[in-house]
Structure formats: structure tokens, C-alpha cells
């Protein structure tokens, strides 16, 4: 008899009421019972972690990340916070954590519940994979939680196996032992796996995306009168952005002036010692310290210059030497020129023949030994450090023989403005109803001063097709796109629906608890195998400038690999009314 397949489970109850009084938690125990009843001879679910917390964005994320990243649980189920309530933020907290989304699981749960109540349409369920953990959100009511989990519990072992890099064959074998007819389930979903781990699906239904934005083709009379996007705090927005701003990778670049503004992707070690030879710290005479004071013949000169071989100094001799000059072999100290006097010169009076030493030199006095400044293998610049024009990083790297380094790729930024009324700032005269574009020049200047490559995509009119075309063009060339205008509630505010419906971008938030900047929108889109960021800022110039500093610049710094990517925020107190 084969051993049962074991799956570790964590259940997280998210409820202000239950967190204050654990006896009010009915959904958590209900889910535990569902897992227990689903455990059979060949498949066993072990609930090894459970917790009850309030509707707190950061707390939700911290526990789920701990269970996934540190505890390595196979399955994490959250219950609560998935509705339309003001404090329902579970989907917003969970979605940024998902590395792969699984809309099919959410679809299966909602479809099952809709067969029993139309109110299931109000559930905002998300599911997906983080690392090797399957994460699912279910409603907070015991009935809803039970129905939703039961709808998908039979596919969870299969999902876990795939997330761990398996082919699903072992799970199929276990399920076949419990269920004789497993070729096709009730949803009409067939899975076939070959030995190359290719995953083919055949569906009898279509999974459709749900949109918050208005249809692009809908009449103005049918537009929403209130924004459907949840209002979130600035801190929540920053957390969402941080979770989606990913480093683009690293490249090897030469050490030169173009390195300024880049962040090192690895520790850099000295390849050569500094100094690379025994060098004099002062101008004077190289001596044998044990000779002591006296009159000595000057047998040579050592200057800071390229030399084929080191000079040889014997006891009873001295050599004139300059600062930085190589110490002759046999010399053990340097005496400063101030502690000597000239005794005799050559016949033409141009060269010193003998010099009197007035002091007793000490061994190694005024000598820089090899590697005394920097020895081979010393870490000279650490991973995550920014190379600046004034911090000396390029000079240090150059001095120790480092010719190239690995740095994080810097994001390419695209800037565009939207609006029929917006014209270039350098237009000679304005027509009635036109305004000059001040946002684009401002954002281009901000991008330039930060050292990132910035591309200007101009001004786009409030036309659906033109906007879609320019957005697609921009996103094919940049890593981060920043737009201004078109994100509020007007009939020509087309950014959100175009992003969501035409480009299939994910809008993570569309309203903020801040002024100026309330309609600021943040979205992502998967392109060229990695995630691209889209910041759609309000058209008001003050709003655009403020939100670019608060949200765009920190994201760019994080993508570029900055360790300290947040910008300074100064607390101020308003002591009088501002009119």
C-alpha cells in the first residue's frame, strides 16, 4: 500500500471582530473541517498553521509571506475581507504577493456560489502561486467559505504538485485510486501531461476578466457616476508599488565616467594592492636606518616614475627620493629633506655628492608598504552602493585594477501627456480652450536629473484608438511608462479603460486618500517576460509633480537596485490657514 500524499495548510481569518474575540471566528474552524473531511486514504491535508488578524494590509501580507516564504506551506487559505465593504482589503493585499495568478480557481469558486445565491457576484476572490505555495481567498461567512473551498479542494493537490515543479502524474495516480473516473470532471476540464511537463487544458467554458472601468464603446449616459476603485492610503499604495517594482537584472559595464548613477549588483574586490610597491611618503633620502646620523654619499635618485628595476642601496649609502618614489632595495627608512644638509656637490655644482643626516631614522619611517592602503581581495565597494560623481567610487575602482563591474540595469522611462486641449508648451499662440503642456517637460527634466534614460512620446488626444496605439508603442520600448491626464471621471478620461480592456493591464489602484493626486492610478502589464509599470498621474500640474515624487521616483530607484530607494519625507505642521 502506497503512502498518503501529505499537504501542509495554513488558514488565515481576516476579521476585526474575530481578532478582538476569537470565539467569533466561525469560518476558520469550518475550513479546517472541510480539509479534514477531504483527507482520504491517498491524500491528506494537515492544517499546521492558523491565525486570526484584523483587516490590516501590512499584517495580512506579512503572515502570508511568512507562511509561504519561510514556513513553505503547500496551501494558504484566507477567509474574510473579500467583499465591497470599506475595510475589505484582502484582494488588494494578496494580489501583489502572487507571482502567478490562477483566475480559473477563482472562477470555479464564484461559479459554484452563483448557483446558490446571486450575491456571490459581490465576492472579489483572487488566487495564485507564490513560490511553491498555492494561495486562495474565500469569503468570510462560514457558508461561503465552505462552498468555495469545496468547489476547488479536489484540484489543490494537482496545483501544489505543479507549483513544486512536478508533472502531476503522482497526484493523478493518488486520485485515480480514490475516484475511478477521473478523465473528466464535472466542470468539463481535462488535463493532459506528457513527460516533457507540458500542460494542456481543454475548457468547455471561457474565463472572462472582470473590469471596474467603463466600456470604451459605451454611451456617456451609461458611465459610472462614482469611481468604482477603492480608496486606499498613500502607505498602502507605496506597498503595492514596492511589491510590483522588480529589479530588471544586471549587466557588466566598463569602469569609466558612464558608471555614474548606476548601482552595483555585487561586491567588488581589489585586484591589485595600493600602493603596488614600497613608496616614500615624503621628499628626502632613502637610508639604512641602522647607519644612524652622519655624512653619506648620494648614490642615486628615485623619483615617482616608471622604472625598469628597483635600485639597490647598501649600508653607508643614501639615495635622494621624491614623494611617491619607489624605495630602493636595502633601504629601511626615509629621512625628510628638512633633517639633512648638503656637504658637497659635483664639480659643475649640479649634483649632490654627499649629504649629512642629522636624525636617527626608525625602521619603516615615512614608507608606505605594499598594500598598506588597499590589499588584494579587500572589498572596496559593496553590492547596492550607488556610484556617484563625487563619492570617489570610480577613482577607487580604477586604482585597484578593476576594469569592469556588474551593475543593475537602469529602467527606461516613457513620458506622455493626454488631452485634446493640451498643446506643446512652446506653441506661439494658444487657441481658445487650449492649455500648454507643463507636465511633460517637468517629468522629462525629473527623469534627466535622476540619470535614467527618458523617452518622450508626446501628447495624445482623447481618442481611443490613438491612445491605444501610442500606449502599445511606448510599452514596447520602455520599462516604466508615466502618463498625465485622463484618469478622473470625465467622459474623455480614457486611460483606465484603455489600460484595463484594450491592453489587459492589471490596475492595482485607481484612487488615493490624498490631495492633490486623488485619481492617481498604478497598473502593471506583463510584456517580454517581465512586468512593466504604468503610472497614470492626474493632469493637474501640481498633482502630477507631487505624485511623481511620491510614487514614481521611489519605484524607479527600487527597479534600479537602490538599497535605500525611498525618498526623504519631511514632516511639517500647518500653523495657519493657507488661502
UniProtKB/TrEMBL annotation:
Chain ranges of the MoaB/Mog domain: 10-159, 414-558
An example Gene Ontology CC term for this record: cytosol
Cofactor: Mg(2+)
Ranges annotated as biased composition (Basic residues): 194-203
Residue ranges the record marks as coiled coil: none
Record carries keyword Transferase: yes
Organism domain of life: Eukaryota
Keywords: Magnesium, Metal-binding, Molybdenum, Molybdenum cofactor biosynthesis, Transferase
Any one of the GO BP annotations: Mo-molybdopterin cofactor biosynthetic process
Region span, Disordered: 180-226
GO molecular function ontology, one term from the record: ATP binding
Pathways per UniProt: Cofactor biosynthesis; molybdopterin biosynthesis
Reaction equation(s) it catalyzes: adenylyl-molybdopterin + molybdate = Mo-molybdopterin + AMP + H(+); molybdopterin + ATP + H(+) = adenylyl-molybdopterin + diphosphate
Functional summary from the UniProt entry: Catalyzes two steps in the biosynthesis of the molybdenum cofactor. In the first step, molybdopterin is adenylated. Subsequently, molybdate is inserted into adenylated molybdopterin and AMP is released.
Homology family: In the C-terminal section; belongs to the MoeA family. Belongs to the MoeA family.
Protein name: MoaB/Mog domain-containing protein
Lineage: Eukaryota, Fungi, Fungi incertae sedis, Mucoromycota, Glomeromycotina
Amino acid at each position: 500500500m502506497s503512502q498518503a500524499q501529505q499537504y501542509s495548510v495554513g488558514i488565515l481569518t481576516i476579521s476585526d471582530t474575530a481578532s478582538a474575540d476569537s470565539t467569533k471566528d466561525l469560518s476558520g474552524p469550518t475550513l479546517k473541517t472541510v480539509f479534514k473531511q477531504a483527507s482520504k486514504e491517498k491524500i491528506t491535508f494537515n492544517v499546521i498553521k492558523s491565525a486570526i488578524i484584523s483587516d490590516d494590509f501590512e499584517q495580512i501580507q506579512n503572515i502570508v509571506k511568512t507562511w509561504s516564504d519561510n514556513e513553505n506551506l503547500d496551501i494558504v487559505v484566507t477567509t474574510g475581507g473579500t467583499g465591497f465593504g470599506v475595510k475589505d482589503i484582502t484582494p488588494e493585499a494578496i494580489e501583489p504577493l502572487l507571482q502567478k495568478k490562477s483566475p480559473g480557481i477563482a472562477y470555479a469558486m464564484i461559479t459554484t456560489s452563483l448557483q446558490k445565491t446571486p450575491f456571490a457576484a459581490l465576492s472579489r476572490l483572487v488566487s495564485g502561486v507564490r513560490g511553491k505555495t498555492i494561495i486562495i481567498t474565500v469569503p468570510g461567512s462560514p457558508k461561503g467559505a465552505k462552498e468555495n473551498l469545496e468547489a476547488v479542494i479536489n484540484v489543490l493537490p494537482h496545483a501544489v504538485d505543479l507549483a513544486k515543479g512536478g508533472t502531476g502524474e503522482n497526484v493523478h495516480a493518488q486520485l485515480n485510486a480514490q475516484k475511478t473516473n477521473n478523465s473528466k470532471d464535472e466542470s468539463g476540464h481535462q488535463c493532459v501531461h506528457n513527460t516533457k511537463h507540458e500542460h494542456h487544458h481543454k475548457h468547455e467554458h471561457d474565463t472572462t476578466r472582470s473590469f471596474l472601468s467603463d466600456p470604451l464603446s459605451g454611451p456617456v449616459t451609461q458611465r459610472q457616476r462614482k469611481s468604482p476603485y477603492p480608496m486606499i492610503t498613500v502607505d498602502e499604495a507605496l506597498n503595492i508599488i514596492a511589491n510590483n517594482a522588480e529589479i530588471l537584472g544586471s549587466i557588466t559595464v566598463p569602469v569609466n565616467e558612464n558608471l555614474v548613477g548606476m548601482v552595483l549588483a555585487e561586491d567588488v574586490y581589489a585586484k591589485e594592492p595600493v600602493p603596488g610597491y614600497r613608496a616614500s611618503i615624503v621628499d628626502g633620502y632613502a637610508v639604512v636606518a641602522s647607519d644612524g646620523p652622519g655624512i653619506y654619499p648620494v648614490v642615486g635618485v628615485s623619483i615617482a616614475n616608471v622604472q625598469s628595476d628597483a635600485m639597490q642601496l647598501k649600508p653607508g649609502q643614501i639615495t635622494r627620493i621624491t614623494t611617491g618614489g619607489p624605495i630602493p632595495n636595502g633601504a629601511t627608512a626615509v629621512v625628510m629633506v628638512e633633517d639633512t644638509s648638503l656637504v658637497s656637490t659635483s664639480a659643475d655644482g649640479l649634483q649632490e655628492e654627499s649629504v649629512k643626516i642629522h636624525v636617527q631614522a626608525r625602521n619603516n619611517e615615512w614608507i608606505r608598504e605594499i598594500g598598506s592602503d588597499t590589499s588584494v581581495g579587500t572589498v572596496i565597494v559593496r553590492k547596492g552602493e550607488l556610484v556617484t560623481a563625487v563619492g570617489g567610487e570610480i577613482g577607487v575602482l580604477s586604482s585597484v585594477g578593476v576594469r569592469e563591474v556588474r551593475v543593475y540595469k537602469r529602467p527606461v522611462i516613457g513620458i506622455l501627456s493626454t488631452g485634446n486641449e493640451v498643446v506643446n508648451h512652446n506653441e506661439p499662440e494658444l487657441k481658445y480652450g487650449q492649455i500648454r503642456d507643463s507636465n511633460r517637460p517637468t517629468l522629462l527634466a525629473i527623469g534627466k536629473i535622476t540619470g535614467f534614460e527618458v523617452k518622450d512620446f508626446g501628447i495624445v488626444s482623447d481618442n481611443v484608438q490613438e491612445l491605444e496605439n501610442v500606449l502599445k508603442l511606448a510599452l514596447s520600448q520602455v520599462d516604466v511608462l508615466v502618463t498625465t491626464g485622463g484618469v478622473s471621471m470625465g467622459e474623455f478620461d480614457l486611460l483606465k479603460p484603455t489600460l484595463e480592456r484594450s491592453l489587459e493591464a492589471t490596475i492595482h489602484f485607481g484612487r488615493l486618500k490624498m490631495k492633490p493626486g486623488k485619481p492617481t492610478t498604478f497598473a502593471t502589464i506583463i510584456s517580454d517576460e517581465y512586468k512593466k509599470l504604468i503610472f497614470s498621474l492626474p493632469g493637474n500640474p501640481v498633482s502630477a509633480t507631487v505624485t511623481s515624487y511620491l510614487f514614481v521616483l521611489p519605484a524607479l530607484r527600487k527597479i534600479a537596485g537602490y538599497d535605500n530607494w525611498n525618498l526623504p519625507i519631511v514632516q511639517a505642521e500647518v500653523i495657519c490657514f493657507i488661502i
